[in-house]
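In the previous chapter we treated chains in isolation. Here, by contrast, the input contains two separate entities that must be folded as one system, with a combined length of 687 residues.
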Amino acid sequence: MVTIIKPRKGISSLDISEIWRYRELFYIFAWRDIKVRYKQTILGVGWAILQPIFSTFIFTIFFGDLVKISSGALPYPLFVLIGLIFWGFFSGILSHASGSLIENESIVKKIYFPREILPLSTVGANLIDFAISFTLLMCIAVYLHYLPNILILLVLPLGLLIGCLGAGGMGLLLSAFNIKYRDVRYVLPFFIQMMVFMTPVIYPTTIMRPSFRYLIALNPMTGVIEAARVLFSGSANINWLELGVSAFSAVVLFVVGMIYFKSTERFFADLV
Amino acid sequence: MESIIEIEHLSKKYKLGEWQKYYTLRDALVGLSKLPFEFFKRRSKTGLSKGEFWALKNISFKVRKGEAIGIIGPNGAGKSTLLKVLSRITPPTKGVATLRGRVGSLLEVGTGFHQELTGRENIYLNGAILGMNRDEINEKFDEIVDFSGVERFLDTPMKHYSSGMYMRLAFAVAAHLDPEILIVDEVLAVGDAEFQEKCLQKMNAISKEDKRTVIFVSHNMEAVRKLCDRAILIDHGQIIKDGKVSETVDTYLKQSLKVAKESYLKRKDRWGTGQVKITDVVFKNTKGKQINNLKCGEKAEIITRLKYYDKKVKKVEFGIEINSFYDQTKIARIDSKVLRKVITQKNNPIKIRLHELPLLPGRYQFSIWVIGGDGEVYDSIPQAGVFNVEYGDFYKTGTLPEKDDGYLLLKYDIS
């Protein structure tokens, strides 16, 4: 194995074979995040269930009962829970990935490995959370006699992939930005809060003007949440165009995030 | 034989303060408005613009397979930067380095250790971060635990570990990394003497028996002498000497004696805000005569002058740490804080009276610092100077203490 060290300018290329060599780090960082997260809490894994339940409860009272937002073919609690757990997956990756380089500062400064592993490995812990809350969703759906259409077996992995790419891309961008500009730490929670309202979590896109619907589909989770809701109502009548726009947007976000990350990567150890 | 490491004209430029400062968006906007003018800024002949400096300058050397090389030099000389570049943590500004073999770098022991995780879990975590895969760790797990000696606490979270246990486990994992090229930074500066010896033996085995190539940075001249055949002296980012370990170490020791004689105000190997600066440190005997050689058992005075650049500074805390010259073992500390002595501008010069110097004959080095009450460092000079201790009648028995392995003399009686 020969390593050649020389000055780096511009964007460093994405070395897939190197990332493959370091693949165990994805697993080990994800494993650490899960372990640490659940060791420091009393309820542990319980939070992955309690959080969406509380939110569903509150949103159902305010937006379902009081404001009476139309939830189409689904009862409002099920409708909002689907939105919440997919959105939770996306925002979880986004916020953990954004802080990943700063939080692992001591590692970044002392050891070499492909840096993109840190933000991208946050997908792991969030997948576990998602699996738990999705199981909860299935239980509630079955209890309420809403069995999802068989197409869910296709849309679920596709939706998770879209979420990973979109949130991962934004996470790459923000984690790199976070190193140089610590403003990210203050802006991000606010930004994520705002994004809940730009994602059809508490409302359906059907209440919007068609032109606006495709604009909001640029948010990667829009297509995924809407498709999942259609499937849970038992129908297979997915708006594929909406899902396509969201998928395309996720890919673009990932590419942009990765390019920014790779073009600033060489300064990381000197700046954190 | 082909070299396993080839370093050619390696240089690294840093902007002053770049690695400490982070920016806010406001700074970026201000920077943006200045951007059009950047273009007109002239670069001087050195290739540096304002506020930049070469942390490494034109470093070239080759290492043969199986060699153990010591990198020595004063603080801030660029040793750690060199290791960071060779470990690929930060890229060089110029030059090329070619490393033929798997590189394991140990710039800190316990990189990535997590306080909440158990010792067992941290072995896997740390091992993976250092580049071992799971099978390798499984295979060496028992050896690692054995070497660390913390078997009983393997399932205890690390936050309950003592710092000694922490270091043991950390070094144990790192020592079982199996690279062809091992890059090690000042890891022996911590831990007790017995453990340091154990680490050194392990590193010796890695280099001599397993024929691995080792690059070792240390302030501990004894360790460098024991471990390495060849040493490179770096100062101000440049190679001053590259040769046999004994010769390079001698050059370095002579150089540090020379630096210690330089006027304090002119010295650059210091850090701090500069609101108050140390301008002079001298040793005097009881007759008030300035001396370089103290005698054990006798009274002595250390007299330090400060200059207050910031008149608003009313009081300061002041300390001196005494280390052994050859291996940097910490021996004693003089601190105004523990005596609850408030030092104001009136206490200038500061006089420290040593009642009976309890140090064995030998050569010692001291570091000195002045800090504010809030902990802000005004001025700190590591390895500020050197003094010798001569034979003296410490026990008033006429029998002089032998110059031996220890450093300290105790007052005691036997009945």
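Chain A has a mean pLDDT of 90. Residues 25-263 of chain A form one domain. Compare these points with the single-chain example from earlier in the chapter.
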